[in-house]
Specification:
Layout lengths: L3 E3 L3 E3 L3 H12 L10 E6 L5 H19 L11 E5 L11 H13 L7 E5 L2 H6 L17 E4 L6 E8 L8 H5 L10 H4 L1 E5 L1 H4 L3 E5 L3 E3 L3 E3 L1 H5 L16 H10 L2 H6 E7 L3 E2 L11 E2 L3 E5 L2 H18 L11 H7 L11 E5 L1
Length: 348
């Protein structure tokens, strides 16, 4: 396994992540995911803004009730939403879901301008309706700042994930590198810089992924949206089913990222079971439900089961057992992959 690090933490073997995260989290008053993973589920009558608003409010209220505290502004008075648009139109975080989350946060004391969105690619953000229309100049999130990571403006040289696989390991991967930064040395080539707004500029942040399969990561969902699509220079992992899962698991265990990651909220309005992460409507499924969990590993494990079930039913092979993203993340203490022991709480 590759060492992982943020430069403020130093480097260490990957199994040290469990102790490192636990120590830091305890100091911040944050409790690691419980042994029995919990997923709160709200059914939707349809996918209208009203249905999403009711479902999201019910889920967050239940989360607050069971956790014993209410979400609200802290010292920074800001909250971040990590959205997913990288499969393009048809398979992005639903706009009504994001609007419902914003409305729920406003009810809890945040101003609309206190909330910001983080996405990767400007073109896809515009195609999926998040960035303003080039015709009208307006969009559904005019009050919120939208940070486009590929602009290169939201990475800090102090915060990075360190891996020995460089961009120039493969010239094709180097051309596909998901950042506009210029790497000038072998030392810089091996670094993936993390998007700092979520853990430096916000009291907390919410992960809003979409689920697809992925050729080297197995499942593209909660863990991947928080790491692979949230850092620079990650295309260097794209052709390795050994390196990519380890990188995602190790980044997801970084203490600073975990401390402010309050939960993952995901709609199953549309998810894809083969051919991903590129959108193909022939292989999508729609379920009228929204899930909320503090455990990204159990969400990915549950969706991996769904993806495999659909594959088998359609005559395709399941996702390879050699792709161990979920397993690696579980070993690092990020969460549980015990789907049989998961507690599913259906919230009316």
């Amino acid at each position: 396994m590759h060492p992982f690090s943020l430069s403020r933490l130093g480097r260490g073997p990957w199994l040290a992540a469990v102790a490192l995260w636990a120590t830091s989290a305890a100091g911040a008053g944050i409790v690691p995911p419980p042994p029995t993973p919990t997923v709160w589920e709200a059914g939707l009558d349809d996918f209208s803004p009203a249905a999403y608003s009711a479902g999201v409010e019910a889920l967050i209220s239940r989360f607050e009730l069971e956790g014993g505290h209410r979400l609200g502004p802290g010292p920074k008075h800001r909250v971040g939403l990590k959205i997913y648009t990288d499969s393009g139109p048809g398979l992005a975080t639903p706009v009504p879901l994001v609007q419902a989350v914003i409305a729920a946060l406003v009810r809890r004391g945040f101003a609309p301008t206190d909330i910001f969105l983080v996405g990767l690619n400007q073109l896809r953000l515009r195609q999926t309706g998040f960035l303003p229309s080039l015709v009208t100049g307006h969009g559904p999130f005019d009050a919120q700042k939208i940070y486009v990571l590929e602009s290169g403006r939201y990475y800090d040289p102090v915060w990075f994930y360190d891996s020995p696989l460089p961009t120039r390991f493969d010239p094709i991967l180097a051309q596909r590198s998901r950042t506009y930064a210029t790497y000038k040395s072998d030392d810089e080539d091996r670094k993936s810089f993390l998007a700092t707004p979520l853990f430096l500029d916000a009291d907390f942040w919410i992960n809003l992924p979409v689920y697809t399969d992925h050729p080297v990561l197995g499942v593209n969902g909660a863990l991947v949206n928080a790491t692979y699509w949230n850092a620079s220079n990650t295309a260097r992992f794209s052709d390795s089913a050994g390196t990519a899962p380890a990188a995602v698991a190790e980044m997801s265990a970084i203490p600073e990222l975990r401390q402010t990651w309050v939960f993952t909220l995901v709609s199953l309005e549309r998810w894809q079971f083969i051919g991903g992460p590129w959108f193909n409507s022939l292989y999508t499924v729609s379920e009228p439900r929204v899930w909320l969990s503090t455990d990204p590993v159990i969400l990915d494990a549950l969706m991996l089961d769904r993806i495999n079930a659909q594959r088998v039913n359609r005559g395709f092979k399941p996702v390879s057992d050699d792709i161990r993203t979920v397993e690696f993340a579980a070993k690092l203490g990020v969460g549980s992959r015990n789907t049989a022991g998961a507690r599913i709480v259906r919230v009316p």
